[in-house]
Design the sequence.
């Protein structure tokens, strides 16, 4: 374990216990001997591209994140077509044997049989995205499928059956998980964006119908439907609730009002909206869900009021770029200010080793701050170079994989100026304020309940259906005490709650030159995998092309600014590390998914005793190679107070 303070001037996230398993080494038995019974679709030709390791289950390409780790028990979930493979990671290296411990075959709704899938007509029920989060008091596994099915299981019931199977199976055949989903609905088109709100007990689903469906669970009725078959799950159990379209009242409900029974709420985008790959919830001042924050593939950011017809839109920062050059939107996260780590200097906040001058525009209104030039140092940083521990672990002596654990001006204004340090002449490590001519316009649009949009572009009006101009945007639907992270193809953007605060951007955060199968990997360049670990002040941003950025959320204290501190970020590392690429062990294939959770020894009551738990990060590639990392902090993060 190595901490590199001194080389870059700040404490990065601590990364240790780096390990990898090559996919070809994880499988030694034929796939048809591992699970039963087969599905009807198994006789069809498998997904293409030749990415399937012999003996391994078939992957479904061109999806979103298809892996997840439970936050409460030692279970790893990976989606292969319409099956979920469940495995308990072994030992401190998070080893995952090729043969899964249990397989869950997903039921299919009657409505799902009538829906035309978006990607693969031969495998219409294949999973597009999976997430794990608490719903009320219980953790759930939520899945969205290509035929529009949305299915949820309680992980504690899966764990109970997992433990029973571990005690009772000795014939070598992988047991089937027979837990019944407590939730099984259909959104009438391919389901992609998924979100769960634990306190308000809501599930939100973004689909290719260019709309968001919010499933609202009654606060007095039981959640579970374990006595009903999956086919009995239909829209009658979640009847539609619509706010009158011609009403001027906003809002008439809250997250806890009128919740005696289940209902569903459909939130449609305006004509300039598109398919929704990612979404999340925005809270009010009481921590209850107020809105759905969604990004569409055009990069538009939508604020959709759950309890009224009010909606707002912030357009892509690439709106003035020719359409063929635009970077599509792929991800969104709401980041509470409590998870931002206080820093002693702007250099530490932005991740630069050059000095940041205070002489220019600290009192100025708004602006955009670009930290792209710091990425080069982050990509070069490699704690494994200073570590004596080996990388490969399968077959090493004493390492049995079966052992377990014991709005503003017309141009963005430069808020800070970077001056090259006399001791560091590297121009690539500068933090710069963006200019209008850099094609970094920040447009903000406001859509009221009548469905008409109002926009203030940087210099020109946005020619979009139902869009007119307005002097200043309305932030009433912006999440309370939070900032918003939006991801594109290669770039990210941190949007503050107020126009008086700066927006931080980073271009090409993990973009790489692909030495092999270049064309194929380039088509997978999209930052469509995002996770956040608030207690570590960390956001994990993955590109499906194969690399992942470890981003620390930072707070630049108010002594550097006239009014308020600034919520921003820095890029600590990108993984796999440079040395892993140099060792030629990183597969030239896309990522199936990324997953993170506390280490098993830090789960539950044991973890509550630590001020900063240790976490594990698992990268899972199309060829079934596994890369794992342990993440921790030497000191706790400090919440950011922005009025």
Sequence:
């Amino acid at each position: 374990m190595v901490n590199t303070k001194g080389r870059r001037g700040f404490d990065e996230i601590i990364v240790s216990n780096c390990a990898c398993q090559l996919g070809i080494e994880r499988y030694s038995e034929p796939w048809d001997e591992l699970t039963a019974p087969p599905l009807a679709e198994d006789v069809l030709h498998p997904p293409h591209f030749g990415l399937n390791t012999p003996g391994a289950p078939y992957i479904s390409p061109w999806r979103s994140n298809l892996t997840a780790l439970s936050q409460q028990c030692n279970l790893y979930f990976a989606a292969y077509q319409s099956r979920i493979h469940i495995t308990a990671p072994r030992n401190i290296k998070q080893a995952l044997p090729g043969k899964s411990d249990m397989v869950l075959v997903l039921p299919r709704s009657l409505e799902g049989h009538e829906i035309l899938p978006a990607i693969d007509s031969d495998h219409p029920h294949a999973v597009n995205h999976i997430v794990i989060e608490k719903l009320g008091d219980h953790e759930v596994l939520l899945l969205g499928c290509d035929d529009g099915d949305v299915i949820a299981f309680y992980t504690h019931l899966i764990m109970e059956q997992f433990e029973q199977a571990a005690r009772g199976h000795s014939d070598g055949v992988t047991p089937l998980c027979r837990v019944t989903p407590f939730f099984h609905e259909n959104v009438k088109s391919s389901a992609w964006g998924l979100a769960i709100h634990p306190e308000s007990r809501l599930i939100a689903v973004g689909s290719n119908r260019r709309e968001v469906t919010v499933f609202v669970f009654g606060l007095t009725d039981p959640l579970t439907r374990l006595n009903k078959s999956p086919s009995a799950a239909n829209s009658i159990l979640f009847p539609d609730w619509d706010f009158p379209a011609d009403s001027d009242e906003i809002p008439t409900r809250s997250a806890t009002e009128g919740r005696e029974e289940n209902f569903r709420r459909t939130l449609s985008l305006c004509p300039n909206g598109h398919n929704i790959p990612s979404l999340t919830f925005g809270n009010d001042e009481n921590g209850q869900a107020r809105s759905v924050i969604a990004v569409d593939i055009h990069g538009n950011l939508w604020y959709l009021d759950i309890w009224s017809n009010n909606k707002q839109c912030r357009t892509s920062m690439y709106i003035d770029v020719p359409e063929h050059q635009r970077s599509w939107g792929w991800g969104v996260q709401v980041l509470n200010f409590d998870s931002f780590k206080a820093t002693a200097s702007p250099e530490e906040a932005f991740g630069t080793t050059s000095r940041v001058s205070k002489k220019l525009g600290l009192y100025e209104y708004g602006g955009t701050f670009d930290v792209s030039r710091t990425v080069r140092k982050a990509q070069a940083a490699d704690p494994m170079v200073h570590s004596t521990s080996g990388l490969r672990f399968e077959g090493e002596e004493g390492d049995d994989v079966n052992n377990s654990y014991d709005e503003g001006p017309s141009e963005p204004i430069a808020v800070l100026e970077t001056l090259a340090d006399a001791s560091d002449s590297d121009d690539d490590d500068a933090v710069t304020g963006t200019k209008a001519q850099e094609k970094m316009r920040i447009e903000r649009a406001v859509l009221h309940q009548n469905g008409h949009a109002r926009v203030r572009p940087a210099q020109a009006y946005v020619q979009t259906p139902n869009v007119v101009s307005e002097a200043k945007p309305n932030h009433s639907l912006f999440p309370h005490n939070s900032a918003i992270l939006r991801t594109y193809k290669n770039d990210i953007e941190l949007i503050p709650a107020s126009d008086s605060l700066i927006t931080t951007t980073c271009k090409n955060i993990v973009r790489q030159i692909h030495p092999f199968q270049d064309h194929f990997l380039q088509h997978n360049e999209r930052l469509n995998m995002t996770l956040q670990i608030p207690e570590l002040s960390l956001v994990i941003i993955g590109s499906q092309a194969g690399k992942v950025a470890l981003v620390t959320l930072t707070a630049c204290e108010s002594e550097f600014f006239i009014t308020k501190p600034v919520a921003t970020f820095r890029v600590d590392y990108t993984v796999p590390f440079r040395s892993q690429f140099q060792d030629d062990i990183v597969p030239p294939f896309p990522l199936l998914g990324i997953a993170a959770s506390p280490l098993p020894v830090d789960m539950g009551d044991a973890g509550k005793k630590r001020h900063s738990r240790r976490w594990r990060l698992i990268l899972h590639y199309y060829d079934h190679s596994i890369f794992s990392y342990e993440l921790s902090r030497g000191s706790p993060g400090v919440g950011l107070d922005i009025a």
Notes: The chain has one domain: 14-395+407-632. The helical segments are 23-26, 155-168, 346-350, 375-380, 518-522, 578-582, 604-608.
